[in-house]
Amino acid sequence: MSIIFLLTGISLLLAIGFLAAFLWAIKNGQYEDDYTPSVRILFDDSEKEKKSNENKNQKQ
């Protein structure tokens, strides 16, 4: 029976720790920009490709 109290206490401490980490992340602005990651896949990487092609042409 005492193990239930021990496990309950440990789980409460763990939950409080995760809550504190979540609140810290919110306070530091971790979740402010939720739009950019969804459209990042739509951006072209043409500048990187052009530079790598130019470097390959210069080596030849």
Automatic annotation (TrEMBL):
InterPro entries the UniProt entry points to: Cyt_oxidase_maturation_cbb3
Protein name: Cbb3-type cytochrome oxidase assembly protein CcoS
